[in-house]
Design brief:
Largest sheet: 8 strands, mixed
Number of domains: 2
Distance between the termini: 73 Å
Helix content: 25-40%
Radius of gyration: 20 Å
CATH class of the largest domain: Alpha Beta
Number of helices: 11
CATH architecture of the largest domain: 2-Layer Sandwich
Shape: globular
Strand order of the largest sheet: 8-9-10-7-11-12-13-14
Order of helices and strands: EHEHEHEHEHEHEHHEHEEEEEEHH
């Protein structure tokens, strides 16, 4: 049998890109695909390796002895259950974000993977974006001095997802769960994952009710995280922000020697420009290709972690921290407080 790591992909509406991503000659191959829509599962075979099988039954995929690693790309409420079943079947697991909809379930999966010596990863793919990777390398190398403030935002002009994304029972939450998982992860990862000492948050669903067909999730969320290293992170998220651009995505870091911004280009949330500023003068646009350490491929990185037992690009333990932060932000937003100024 080939030495390539053999994958099973679950959920093909968004997971088809993973079939293509892990079909890498000599490195990894997809031997099973699964979706509740049999037509979608069958269609994915065109992008998979020879001998790949399609099924509508998750148990058939997870019990296939050829499958070494399972990739889960289904609605959020099923992430934890399917990941747990795959780990219990002794498969390595990669889960689309959010890894789980609660911090407690995330910690349970982390412990299970550790007990069984398996790799558990979350697919926080923005970590592999060259501009964000270069920003992290600049921070790690001391290029900003001591970072004391970060701002992370993702505000859409008018783009609230429909279907199960507006159902709290299935999605786990609204914009904080959907876009916030990415932005909070990137901010903490860039800063080296310091502990979150305290936080505040607020959410709103007014615009979703007024401008869309409703739903029971929030369309706007803001928050402030105070970290153990005395830095603070401001979070701003919205599905319906009225702004001129369709997508406005930003990571801004301010340090004692310089500041940097990673901002999306145009209306795309897939392409970014990294800029370093010193005293507000002569902004320097950084070519990520000139940073000594290059961003890894999310796909090759997970394969390497399986082969070596090393840490994947986004280990489950860090995804669990993000899940716990989001738990606490929802709790803070729901808390009833007394006015401090009347």
């Amino acid at each position: 049998m080939s030495s390539a790591v053999r994958f099973g992909i679950v959920g093909l509406r968004h997971g088809l890109r993973h079939v293509r991503g892990w079909e890498r000659p000599g490195e990894s191959t997809v031997v099973a695909v699964c979706d509740v829509d049999s037509g979608r599962a069958d269609a994915a075979l065109a992008d998979a390796g020879p001998g790949c099988v399609a099924t509508v039954r998750f148990d058939q995929l997870v019990e296939d002895p050829r499958v070494q690693a399972v990739v889960i790309s289904v609605p959020n409420d099923a992430h934890a259950e399917l990941a747990e079943r795959a780990l219990l079947a002794n498969k390595h697991v990669a889960v689309e974000k959010p890894m789980t909809t609660t911090g407690n379930r995330a910690r349970e999966l982390v412990r299970l993977a550790e007990d069984r010596g398996l790799v558990l990863a979350a697919l926080h793919d923005f970590r592999a974006d060259p501009a964000h990777w270069a920003a992290r390398e600049l921070v790690r190398g001391g290029g900003l001095g001591e970072v004391y403030f970060a701002r992370t935002m993702w505000v859409r002009r008018d783009n609230a997802p429909g279907s199960w994304y507006r159902d709290r029972a299935r999605a786990g939450g609204g914009v904080l769960m959907d876009l916030g998982t990415h932005r909070i992860d990137l901010a903490l990862w860039t800063l080296g994952f310091p502990d979150v000492r305290e936080l505040t948050a607020a959410t709103s669903s007014r615009l979703l009710q007024l401008r869309c067909d409703g739903g029971d999730v929030e369309d706007t969320a803001v928050g402030m995280l105070h970290l153990d290293n005395d830095a603070s992170v401001q979070v701003e998220l919205s599905f319906l922000g009225h702004l001129p651009r369709r997508e406005q995505v930003l990571l801004e870091l301010r340090g004692t020697q310089a500041a940097l911004r990673v901002a999306n280009i145009g209306d795309s949330y897939r392409h970014y420009l990294l800029t370093v500023l010193r005293d507000g003068n002569n902004p320097q646009h950084i070519d990520p290709e000139q940073v000594p350490s290059r961003a890894p491929s999310m796909y090759s990185d997970f394969v390497a972690a399986i082969r070596t037992g090393g840490r994947p690009l986004c280990p489950g333990s860090e995804a669990a921290v993000v899940a716990e932060v989001i738990d606490r932000m929802y709790a803070a937003a729901a808390a009833v407080t007394q006015p401090v100024v009347r």
